Amino acid sequence: MIEIKKVSFQHENAEKPSLKNVSLTIAEGECVLLCGESGSGKTTVTRLINGLIPHFYEGKMEGCAMVNGLNVTEAELYDTARIVGSVFQNPRSQFFCVDTTSELAFGCENMGMLEDEILSRVDEAARELNIEKLLGRSIFELSGGEKQKISCASVSALRPEVMVLDEPTSNLDVHAIEELKQTLLGWKAEGKTIVIAEHRLSWLRDLCDRVICMKDGQVAFDLSMQAFAQYSTEQLHQMGLRSLRDEKIAPVQNSVPETETMQLQNFCFSYDGTPVLNIPHLSLPLDGIIALVGPNGAGKSTFSRCLCGLEKKFKGQVKINGQLWKNKQLLKNCYMVMQDVNHQLFCETVADEVQLGMRSENSSDVERVLEMLDLSHLRERHPMSLSGGQKQRVAIASAILAGKEILIFDEPTSGLDFRHMEQTAALLSSLKGNQTVLIVTHDPELIQRCCDHIVCIENGTVI
Amino acid sequence: MARGILQASIQNRGLVLDPRTKLVMLFDIALFVLGSAGGGSVEPLVPILCAMPAVLMLSAKKWKGAATYLLVYLLSWLTYTQLVPLTKGAVNFILLGCSGMLSRFLPGIAMGGYLVSTTTVSEFTAVMLRLHLSEKIIIPLSVMFRFFPTVMDEAASINAAMRMRGIYMGGKNVGKMLEYRLVPLMTCCVKIGEELSAAALTRGLGGEAKRTNICKIGFHIQDYLLFVVCLIPYAVWIMGRVL
């Protein structure tokens, strides 16, 4: 069904090629997992199949890719779109319409199908994925999991024979991943060919029949899932892969020491009259690393926003070391490292950036923190030119130097491979003892590595 | 996320009008209220036109918008007609300027607000197709409307980040606020724009086939009624000329 013939590809402006002479054949009805570290070329392979390379992402390319007899390297993207459907990582940026029904119809409309045909296809896709009740809603009201379902359905409506998914679970919780799995199982039963590039492997164990691991732009190995499942977790980690076992969130020691706690009081908040957060009282260990878990839409982000003093109408307070912090003090003493770090880097050099929020200029402090976070050699670089992990460290450095006592991380490891996840875990552990760190996360492996306390939020309350 | 421009939800939207009717009404208000076309003969009809945005907002269950509009408009109108003649000098000048501007511009702005907050992007595109505009104009426009809420979302996150860093009005670094806001905003928008185009292209946007649009637009009894309302000022205008 899919045939990649001796493809080499180098992105424009890239220093090294993303693919080196890769050849692959995928049979009809196969479900293939593409794994490998970040930058190993798995996303590039998915883009070869859906034609975005070389038509959208330009660069130097040799060889070609055939899908169902169509040379997608040469065919126009709208012809490829009939046989290859794509689901992407970021649900925020893959919707073209603003309401769900038009989104489902979007692909068919582009093909110029008849109106009745489109309507029946939309209905069928919605029935298949069990999302009838989501029709006619605004995209912006949906949760991450619901958005991902809509994008699957909108691809489904075009009835392509090949489905390509590029890290579809980066922003999903356990429950939403399970539903995505059901969708994919449905497609598999229909005999569609599925290619998934993913870091998180455990949910694909019973779904994929073949595993292709990429390394430095080449195929490192190509195994059946049965053979792949024989690898131990340690062996996988050595290859830079995440665990294949279903990692449950391990019950870490959860007793709060009597001394050294901070008391969160009256953490209640509602948006337009709908209560989303209702935590009358909660004590958290001071200077610990606390994981904040719970399903999408449970109130985790509202909790973080309130704790950072970002909600002006928020009335709660934090009692810490005998002091009482309200909104204003919270804003001064807490800092959130956002999932998209690009939102919080403003200056022209790293050195300026970390000094921006400092209350008094103190160059020895700056030196010490830059050293600690391994940023000294980058001090003259523009923050936007750094890699994701480096940006994250710059944001942390700026928070420490601004004298923040509480740091909150929003999904710091979403979309990271094993090695980067471990680096982040080490970095977070190194903050222990100086700052209180809260991590909003869905990543059991991260929690296992660095957290010493878990708070689970569901329906706006702690359970 | 609050609903913004062309982000109407399809559920619970009250009385639905064809976007073309709304456009005609907007044009009417611009012509007769803002441009005071027709002069003295049409003037008695202006209050009716000014009331239309409020009526329409009520029909679309936008209670708050309607109330705010009515209140502000009545205030400025009362100032204009009652308070201004009583004052002198600089006060008179300022009051006249403010209330005069408000009472002329406000109906148009409110009508525009009603138009964009009760129409969805697909309805808008459908209408433009019906009006035989080229896809070269329609596609960029619909992308633009799709982009507004995203940009606002991004701007809100950046704003939050700035406040956590102690950059706010009255804090230090006020002079650089614009730069701090725009640089990350542009970076994020470029990235999202690229991902968005990639997603749209893999679903066949830009093909040779003529796009269909499943959005049902069409004129109903309420549209015809409004057209009649829209036509009255023209009729009065022409009659005033002829007679």
TrEMBL record, chain A:
ABC transporter domain sequence ranges: 2-241, 262-463
Main location: membrane
Entry keyword set: ATP-binding, Cell membrane, Membrane, Nucleotide-binding, Repeat, Translocase, Transport
Keyword Zinc: no
PROSITE patterns the record matches: ABC_TRANSPORTER_1, ABC_TRANSPORTER_2, SIGMA54_INTERACT_1
Pfam families: ABC_tran
Matching InterPro entries: AAA+_ATPase, ABC_transporter-like_ATP-bd, ABC_transporter-like_CS, ABC_transpr_CbiO/EcfA_su, ECF_ABC_transporter_ATP-bd, P-loop_NTPase, Sigma_54_int_dom_ATP-bd_1
GO CC entries: ATP-binding cassette (ABC) transporter complex
Membrane topology field: Peripheral membrane protein
Entry's Gene Ontology molecular function annotations: ATP binding; ATP hydrolysis activity; ATPase-coupled transmembrane transporter activity
UniProt entry tagged with the keyword DNA repair: no
Compartment(s) of residence: Cell membrane
Entry function: Probably part of an ABC transporter complex. Responsible for energy coupling to the transport system.
Family designation: Belongs to the ABC transporter superfamily.
Name by which UniProt lists this protein: Energy-coupling factor ABC transporter ATP-binding protein
Organism in which the protein naturally occurs: Anaerosacchariphilus hominis
Lineage of origin: Bacteria, Bacillati, Bacillota, Clostridia, Lachnospirales
From TrEMBL, chain B:
Stretches that traverse the bilayer: 21-38, 67-85, 105-129, 224-240
Pfam families registered for this protein in UniProt: CbiQ
InterPro entries per the UniProt record, alphabetical: ABC/ECF_trnsptr_transmembrane, ECF_transporter_component
Primary localization class, coarse: membrane
Keyword Membrane in record: yes
Membrane topology label: Multi-pass membrane protein
UniProt subcellular location: Membrane
Key words, A-Z: Cell membrane, Membrane, Transmembrane, Transmembrane helix
GO cellular component, one term: plasma membrane
Domain of life: Bacteria
Protein name: Energy-coupling factor transporter transmembrane protein EcfT
